[in-house]
Amino acid sequence: MIAFLIMSYGNKFLSECVNSIRTYYPSTLICIVYNDITAVPLFTNDQNIRHSHNTSNSFELGAIWYATKTWTDITKFITLQNSLVLKNKLPEEMVNKDYAPLWTACVTDWSPIINIIEPLIYDTLQFPRNTTWDGICGCCCVVSTDILKKLISDGFDSFCPKNKTDAVASEIILGFLIHEHLGIKEPPLHEYSQGYNNMRKSPWVFKIGGGQGVLPNTSKFHVNLSTLPSFQNSDSKNDIFIQILVFFQKNDEESNNILDSYPLTIDSGNKKINCILGGIRHRLATKRYFPTYFNIEYQQFINREKMLW
Predict the structure, then answer these.
(1) Residue 114 has what DSSP assignment?
(2) Which of 19, 39, 175, 260 is deepest in the core (most CB within 10 A)?
(3) Residue numbers of the domain that contains 257
């Protein structure tokens, strides 16, 4: 039996999500895992909707493990965040697969997260250095429960996100487990750059909200501008970015200091520089874990073949 699995933080967008599914799949089973244990279930009169409260807010990946263990009669889930809505029926050839992601992105899009998550999962999973893979954006995919049960039997359900940073990391982890550990690879339904960043262009699914489960980060990492190369505030972001990136490339101690500050908010007293330093911190994480990818991207920045702004 196939079912939509809605990974919900509460009821803010849930009605829109469920109603969109019912527009195109009027009788397909829907399973809702409420990561917010205080949430009051909706659609209780729909006999084809199952509800369960997760025992803790373990975000998307925790909800997937939980659902797989709770509803053992399901053979395949179509996993959606509660802030996603359908615009059409999903392509039949995709739904018929044992696995197909809605969106994927290269792990280098999440490089800083690895610095935090790797020590937490080291006993269970070790990421290879200098090898990239695709993460599953939002953990949203079509996936056979046989695949999920295999991952559970291998002990990977021991990782359950405990905060928003872990939750973002789970997109990397689920992608690694399916694509690399199990060797199952399928093209995504959407192109990441055209779909996830501008979902309203998608003919199938788009996002109507975000920021759920996020707690404001009030801690800051202070940067003294006098320690950075001199620049004119009127210079373009790309020009300043290159100057500072070259500086950090040549200064390992400074590079490690700013890299290890993640996820603290960078505060230099200059909003423009804060934004630039955020982009640089990301590239320094890529350098640590994926040096070959970094070296290519670094030369693209230096030669102005690639620009962030």
Answers:
(1) H
(2) 175
(3) 220-302
Mean pLDDT by 10 residues, the chain (309 residues): 90 90 96 78 82 74 92 97 93 96 93 83 80 93 98 89 74 94 93 52 80 62 92 90 96 94 93 96 96 97 95
Same domain, 31 and 123: yes
Question: What pLDDT is stored for residue 125 in this prediction?
Answer: 80
Question: Is 38 strand, coil or helix?
Answer: coil
The residue out of 207, 231, 248 marking a domain boundary is: 207
If one counts the domains in the chain, the total is 2
Q: What is the pTM of this model?
A: 0.88
Does residue 120 belong to any structural domain of this protein? yes
| Residue 271 CA from chain centroid, whole number | 25
Q: At what angle do helices 271-289 and 291-302 cross, to 10 degrees?
A: 140
Residue 231 burial by Cβ neighbours in a 10 Å radius (0-12, 13-18, 19+):
middle
Integer Cα distance of 184 and 19 in angstroms: 32
Amino acid at residue number 4 = F
Residue 71 neighbours by CB distance under 10 Å: 18
